[in-house]
Amino acid sequence: YVMFGENTLGSVTDHQRWVDIATRYLSNHYRGIFYADPQTDLELKTNESKLEDLQSEQTAILRELFELNPTVFRQIADTLIEKRSLNREALIPFLSQVKLPNSFPHPIIG
Questions:
Q1: Which residue from 29, 92, 18 is spatially nearest to 58, judged by alpha carbons?
Q2: Considering only Cβ atoms within 10 Å of each terminal Cβ, which end of the chain, N or C, has fewer?
């Protein structure tokens, strides 16, 4: 959705997977109050607000990622249309060109 601005039937499943992962993330990281088992309207609304904030934050990061790398993502899309699939080795030359936004999360190493 972020790159092309349109939803597809597959996006329903993707969104549900995101909600599941985001719920686990918010339950296990300190980002303010998030109720693991919400019981009241207040708890449900608090959780909904936290999920919406996280989604907005991540959507902004993705938009910036796509804005910084339109040529690379167009090349990947064109190659996928032509070849129908790309394995890890075929993706590496494309992904090595990607510029990450400053706000892009990085794994903690060490």
A1: 18
A2: C
DSSP summary character for residue 98: P
CA–CA distance from 11 to each of 1, 15, 28, 34, 80 (Å)? 8, 6, 25, 25, 19
Q: Name the helix (H) or strand (E) containing 80.
A: helix 70-83
End-to-end CA distance of the chain: 34
- How far CA 33 is from CA of 18, 22, 25, 58, in Å, comes to 19, 14, 12, 19
d(CA 101, CA 96): 14
pLDDT in tens, 6-54: 656 667 888 899 999 999 999 987 788 999 899 999 999 999 999 999 9
Q: Is the dihedral of CA 24, 29, 31, 36 positive or negative?
A: positive
